[in-house]
Amino acid sequence: MKKAYAVIGANFGDEGKGLMTDYFCRLGRSTINIRSNGGAQAGHTVCTADGKRHVFSHIGSGCFAGADTCLSEYFILNPMLFSKEADVLGNDIGNIFIDSRCIVTLPCDMLLNQYAETVRGKDRHGSCGVGIFETIVRNRDSRYTLRYGDMLKADRGSLASRIRLINMEYCPKRAAELGITGKKGNELMELLSSVILTENYLDDLYTMAMRCREADEQVIEEYDTAVFEGAQGLMLDQDRADHFPHLTPSSTGMKNIRAILDRLEERDTEICYVTRSFFTRHGAGRFDTESADIAQLYGLYDKTNAANEYQGNFRYGWFDLPGFMTSLSLDKRYITKGEKTAIAVTHLDMTDDTIICPTGMLIPEDLSYMTRADMLYKVSGETADMITAADMSYAAAYRS
After folding, report:
1. pTM of the prediction?
2. Cβ distance 342 to 375 under 8 Å?
3. Superfamily of domain 3-97+215-399, CATH level 4
4. Which of these ranges, 70-84, 191-205, 289-303, has the smallest mean pLDDT?
């Protein structure tokens, strides 16, 4: 039977989803890597044994493993950021399939996002600043909706006119709703009036179209192995009211993946929940186990997440066992009978192979036991060859 893996971040993101996606993509012969939510705000780091390192944001993290990429209907396209990433990676990015139903970020969405965060001051939401939420809000109004397939059907002149209409008709109203007024509002509208901004954007759109192919999820059937790559983490899911408003506007767990799998032939499926051996958060919002001292105490560091204007500093904390268990419990409602679950614990090399909780230490096997996981992956480094896998299915069956 064909295989499917789902890689899901269990916490606030930055758990190691890129590493685990790369690992699973190396297990199959014919592999497609599906982005199942979010968009180019993802920052999934992959390092290889031969020294390659890249933070994947648009293209699937299985790229270095030779996997093709499928950007599903639940993915938000950004031609500007796609072009930048594709230029960095060069021609060796495999086949990239884009669902024509994808909504597409415009320059105005990014600018509205960034200006809104600026005027919020100390009340910032912790956004990445790439316009994900603003893209969704704009597309809720049928007058301003732009989907990938429709954009490619229009001629360049008509598309440029439609973007100008959005800039001049929609954006002033949306800016006022966001509190972008006065000098900041004038600055924003001056930027949006630039013909060069729109023309450069269209260049990126058509470059992306030339490097990719349109296809819906049925293209997955052509591959033996499907690796679904989630973005952000379960604690940032749009339905997590307990963490509102500092959430991401998408379903970060199995919900979208379940919808896609249900439209395909049955596969032998494993859902892997990824966590660090401690907790982190990049951006504002509730963080129950945050500790100002834990990074220094254990020598914790992160090569990818630097402080930035919109998300602020990278935050560290103890492993939140109750929060972790709650997140998995909520997400498991989308798992069907016969599907396996797995736990992957990353960054164990930083914490002496233990999970550091505020009340004491756990070993990864403890976490596997408590979650009744069928597989356990222990990660003590940045590359796929530093992952050890243990079949826990017999123990899981015994505990059932």
Report:
1. 0.93
2. yes
3. Adenylosuccinate Synthetase, subunit A, domain 1 (3.40.440.10)
4. 289-303
